[in-house]
Amino acid sequence: MERTEWPGVFRRGRDLFTRNLDPGHRVYGEEVVDDGGAEYRRWDPFRSKLAAYLLKAAPAAPWGGARSVLYLGGAHGTTVSHLSDLLPDARLVVIEKSPVAFASLLALARRRPNVLPILADAQLPERYRADVGAADLIYQDVAQRDQARLFLENWTACRSVRARGLLMLKVRSVTQSRPVERVLAEARAELERGGVAVRGRTDLGPFSRDHAALAITEP
What we know:
Blueprint: E1 2-3, E2 9-12, E3 15-19, E4 32-35, E5 38-43, H1 49-55, E6 68-72, H2 78-86, E7 91-96, H3 99-111, E8 115-119, H4 129-132, E9 135-140, H5 147-158, E10 159-170, H6 171-174, H7 180-193, E11 197-203, E12 211-217
Parallel strand pairs: 6-7, 6-9, 7-8, 9-10
Antiparallel strand pairs: 1-2, 2-3, 3-5, 4-5, 10-12, 11-12
């Protein structure tokens, strides 16, 4: 198992791995490898947009140094579980509004003490802001039309003074008709009007079609 340029991420051949915080247990049927007395979980880029972002040449690890994370749209916990591996001493507050998906997050949290799932709508950050505190990383992966506005509302409500953001923009959740480039340009413009800087854009194909990662910081 070889270390990569991203803290906590390892590589074997072309595959990425994280060291399992919960040895002996898988989360989504992923491959598990024992190496040097440690257990590593394969990080599938077709199941996790964050892994896809890294493989598409992310310049730096967006989670580097984060002590607290606000994760919007945790779904069944695939990417959440790998962030849990990467940040064992951090606090990951995960927002999910689907009761079905939330049940999976609850099961994950029972085995991973750094994961705090909250059943809530990410459009209403005032309902969970007190539980989040000040987040060093705000990560969003939701299937809604107004993704840029939703990110800005959570950024304003929950960011720390040194926060970074990563918005996994699902273009076809915004519109089925307008060109991808136009949707991305509109989202970027809305974010920048809202007072943040979009430092980079990464197309996530072929892992996730019509998806792009927008890296966000203060201006």
